[in-house]
Amino acid sequence: MACYDPDTEEYQSVCRVMSGFSDAFCIEKWLNLLILKIVISRQSVRILG
């Protein structure tokens, strides 16, 4: 989920807003998906952190 910031003309991520998922569920899914992480991003995507 993301929201658009017209000042920077970028989408800002919004995490777990009203998802209803527990922290344990989110951590488990994050660990399962970690192997699919893209190390080098496209030029059009800015990654912080």
Structure keywords:
about 50 residues, alpha+beta, 1 helix, 2 strands, flat
Commentary on this structure:
The chain has 49 residues and is of the alpha+beta class. It has one domain. The protein is built from one helix and two strands; from the N terminus they run ββα. It has one helix at 23-33; strands spanning 2-5, 10-13. The chain has a two-stranded antiparallel ribbon. A hairpin with a 4-residue loop joins strand 1 (2-5) and strand 2 (10-13). It starts with a strand and ends in a 16-residue tail after the last helix. The mean pLDDT is 78.
Q: Which structural category fits the helices and strands?
A: alpha+beta
Q: Whole-number average pLDDT? A: 78
Q: In which order are the strands of the major sheet placed? A: 1-2
Q: What is the radius of gyration? A: 13 Å
- What is the succession of H and E elements? EEH
Distance between the termini: 18 Å
Total E-strand runs: 2
- Which word captures the global form? flat
Give the tally of structural domains.
1
User: How many helices does DSSP assign?
Assistant: 1
The low-confidence runs, each spanning 5 or more residues with pLDDT under 50, are none
